[in-house]
Amino acid sequence: MGRTVFCARLKKEAEGLDFQLYPGELGKKIFNNISKEAWAAWQHKQTMLINEKKLNMMDPEHRQLLETEMVNFLFEGKEVHIEGYTPPSES
């Protein structure tokens, strides 16, 4: 097991990321406060969001939208709402 962080998303000690995966101050915050497990969950949601909303990562507005969703998911405990997608538990 690598480094351990108290994960802001999972609210428990968990294995931390091996290196900073996101730039800047937010990247440092993620590196210090988000576990591998929570980051993997976000990556899954991010892919679904990009596909559903047909986001273009070259578009600054699209990147900002994704970053806002990421912060809400990782630090605010909010779920990502993906239109047309119903989690299996709710169907």
TrEMBL record:
<dbReference type="InterPro" id="IPR036766">
    <property type="entry name" value="Fe_traffick_prot_YggX_sf"/>
</dbReference>
<dbReference type="Pfam" id="PF04362">
    <property type="entry name" value="Iron_traffic"/>
</dbReference>
<dbReference type="InterPro" id="IPR007457">
    <property type="entry name" value="Fe_traffick_prot_YggX"/>
</dbReference>
<dbReference type="GO" id="GO:0005506">
    <property type="term" value="F:iron ion binding"/>
</dbReference>
<comment type="similarity">
    <text>Belongs to the Fe(2+)-trafficking protein family.</text>
</comment>
<comment type="function">
    <text>Could be a mediator in iron transactions between iron acquisition and iron-requiring processes, such as synthesis and/or repair of Fe-S clusters in biosynthetic enzymes. Necessary to maintain high levels of aconitase under oxidative stress.</text>
</comment>
<dbReference type="GO" id="GO:0034599">
    <property type="term" value="P:cellular response to oxidative stress"/>
</dbReference>
<dbReference type="GO" id="GO:0005829">
    <property type="term" value="C:cytosol"/>
</dbReference>
<keyword id="KW-0408">Iron</keyword>
<protein>
    <recommendedName>
        <fullName>Probable Fe(2+)-trafficking protein</fullName>
    </recommendedName>
</protein>
